[in-house]
Design brief:
The protein is of the alpha+beta class. It has one domain: NADH Oxidase. It is 40% helix and 15% strand. The protein has eight helices and six strands; from the N terminus they run ααβαααβββαβαβα. Helix 2 packs antiparallel against helix 6. The protein starts with 9 loop residues before the first helix and ends in a 5-residue tail after the last helix. The model has no long low-confidence stretch (mean pLDDT 96).
């Protein structure tokens, strides 16, 4: 099939890129969520947008579980805090613990229940069809790209989110009854920020630190 995406003038490209950069510079990870209702149809569209991500051999090795049920989220929080307690009390190195100090985090994770919903992302370690197992390719890379697009889409509609990795995360597959080929990749609480929401005063690396030009 032929493909003809819209093409812009250099001036329009620069303006669009600058507008997008300015919007993305306001994106922050948030741990304090409002109880305000979120239009879930809009969130579903964000997940659909994530599903347009490129993937190895177009295998699309991902599942996005949208969890709003309070009882399921309570079970997830309980299991996550068990794992996080072990992380903060022996699993994580002293250097790791020191690096986390600016964020003021600990094993208590109220945002799992306070946020209006969770998007639990699973990667498919292998595929399946009527003949049995099938091969997937570049799974971590593919799912990582999709998650980046999901976070961008949520930001585009005015929601905040958190990338939560209560490793090990096997409990997520058990609670959500996912098949054997799916492995938990990320837990993403989302919603509107609470009225008293605060984030650490951090600075991102400037473009001069992350870009090397070869001309």
């Amino acid at each position: 099939m032929k493909y003809h995406p819209e093409r812009f003038s250099p001036k329009e490209m620069l303006k669009r890129s600058q507008d997008f950069l300015e919007k993305m510079e306001t994106r922050r990870s948030v741990r304090h969520f409002s109880s305000d209702e979120v239009p879930m149809d809009a969130v579903v569209n964000c997940i659909a947008a994530a599903g347009t991500a490129p993937s190895g051999a177009h295998k699309q090795p991902w599942t996005f579980c949208l969890v709003t049920d309070p009882e399921i989220r309570k079970r997830i929080r309980f299991a996550a805090e068990e794992e996080e307690y072990r992380n903060y009390n022996g699993r994580m190195s002293p250097e790791w613990m020191k690096d986390l100090e600016p964020f003021g985090t600990n094993e208590i994770k109220p945002f799992i229940e306070n946020a209006p919903g969770l998007i639990v992302v699973f990667k498919h370690s292998y595929g399946t069809d009527e003949s049995g197992k099938t091969q997937n390719y570049y799974v971590n890379e593919s799912v990582g790209i999709a998650v980046g697009m999901l976070l961008t889409a949520l930001h585009e509609i005015g929601l905040v989110a958190l990338t939560h990795t209560p490793s090990p995360m096997k409990f997520l597959a058990e609670i959500l009854e996912r098949p054997e080929n799916e492995r938990a990749y990320l837990n993403i609480p989302f919603g509107f920020p609470s009225d008293n929401c605060e984030v650490p005063n951090l600075k991102r690396k400037p473009i001069s630190d992350i870009l090397i030009k070869y001309s």
